[in-house]
Every structure is written in C-alpha cells, then in structure tokens.
Amino acid sequence: MESESNVLGGDLESCSQDPVTGFMRDGYCYPLQRDPGRHEICAVMTEAFLEYSKAAGNDLVTPRPELNFPGLEPGDRWCVCVPRWIEAHEDGYAPPVVLAATSEDVLEDVSLETLRRYSHENETEV
Asked: InterPro entries given for it (predicted)?
C-alpha cells in the first residue's frame, strides 16, 4: 500500500470483505500507481448513487463475474473512484463515506470538511 492512513490520520481500515472491494480486491481503498481510477473513497451505496453511476456509464449493479465483480446493492460498501465521487457530489448524488476506510490521499482533492458532511457515521439513513 502506498498510503496506509485514512483521512482522519489513523490506520486505514478495511472498507468491505463482503463484497470484497478495492482495486486489488483485498477490501481496502488505498492509492496505487497502476489504478488510474483512484478507487480510494470507501462509500456506502445508495439507490440514488447506483442509478447515477449507471446513467454516467458505470453500471455497479450488474454482476460481472469475469471481472470478479459481484454487483452492488444499497447498503454495500465499495471503494469508489475519487473523480466519480466528486462528480456525484457536485450533482447531488454522492453516497455516504466511511472515513476510517477512506485513503488520506483523497484529501488532495476533497476537503476533510466535505467528507465529514458525508460521513456514514453521522448518517441516520442510508
């Protein structure tokens, strides 16, 4: 892992083992030089975000076994691409973020204040 810290300055926690997420399918949302999509934000899927992502050309619902992708449902945790999360934020569809499982490298593009506003830990509804 290039970064093993989360946006809160602590150790990066696993985002999800079921379904297994991360660019390397090891459960973690950390930066890798060979990951141009930057799957560094641990997000809790919502119906609105899944529909938004599909409409934007990235179907996260349909299983793709050949890509080791199970298909996602609302409530699943998944490492999402930084640019897609920012785009969804700007359009009003950003999903909640699990701060302890989100790479500190994200702070280069998204402020901690913004991430805290979307913190899953502060959500009463997902």
From this structure: DUF2237
Banded model confidence at residue 116, pLDDT cuts 50, 70, 90: very high
Q: Note whether residue 126 is domain-resident.
A: no
Residue 36 lies in a domain: yes
CATH number of the domain within which 107 lies: 3.30.56.110
pLDDT at 1: 46
Q: In the chain, what is the straight-line distance between the N-terminal and C-terminal CA atoms, in Å?
A: 29
106: in domain = yes
Per-residue pLDDT tens for 64-96? 988 878 899 999 999 999 999 999 999 999 999
Q: What is the pLDDT of residue 68?
A: 77
Residues 6 or more apart whose Cβ sits within 8 Å of residue 37? 23, 81, 83, 84
Domain range for 15 = 1-120
Bond prior to 19 in cis (omega within 30° of 0): yes
